[in-house]
Specification:
Elements: H1 2-17, H2 24-45, E1 52-54, E2 58-61, E3 70-71, E4 75-83, E5 86-93, H3 105-116, E6 121-125, H4 133-145, H5 151-156
Helix pairs in contact: 1-2
């Protein structure tokens, strides 16, 4: 993203400086957009906040924009799916349960697209995380198999455990 923003910025400036270039309006639009893309890339580069939190309550993912934890009680299954060489955690959700998450506008819009292809799931990108997909898979499997009162122990014994809350 940083490289793309920088290349478009340089290209826009060169087009603006070229006296023979007829479409200078492209530069007037492209330069501010390039600066925004570059700034967004810088923000992401220095963002040290957790992208994925797995705890005894459930799973929280920064990118899904749900704003709340996906509780273990709603997760009825999962698998790791590779789409275009990018690993994704596919969480099958119990849509018949009663939970505030299922009423969120963001969740409903996510599900609208999933229903078209016959899924009742949430996709979480995990390919960019430092944790290995296999570690995430074994940890989630162990948590789902454990009774609710033993989940904290399973998490503390996990390879993924960092001690942070």
């Amino acid at each position: 993203m940083l490289l793309g923003g920088a290349l478009f910025l340089v290209g826009g400036i060169l087009m603006l400086l070229d006296e023979n270039h007829e479409n200078k309006w492209v530069s007037y639009i492209g330069i501010p957009m390039s600066i925004m893309v570059f700034a967004f890339g810088i923000k992401l580069l220095f963002d040290k906040s957790p992208q994925l939190i797995i705890n005894e309550e459930g799973i929280w993912d920064k990118k899904t924009k749900l704003g709340m934890v996906i509780p273990w009680e709603l997760i009825i299954g999962f698998d790791i799916v590779s789409i275009h060489n990018n690993k994704n955690l596919n969480l099958a959700i119990d849509l018949n349960a009663q939970h505030p998450l299922l009423e969120l506008k963001q969740f409903k819009s996510m599900q609208k697209g999933n229903r078209m292809i016959g899924l009742n799931s949430i996709f979480i990108q995990i390919g960019t995380l430092n944790a290995k997909a296999k570690h995430i898979e074994t940890t989630i499997a162990a948590i789902l198999e454990a009774p609710a009162d033993k989940r904290a122990i399973v998490i503390r014994e996990s390879v993924l455990y960092t001690g942070r809350q």
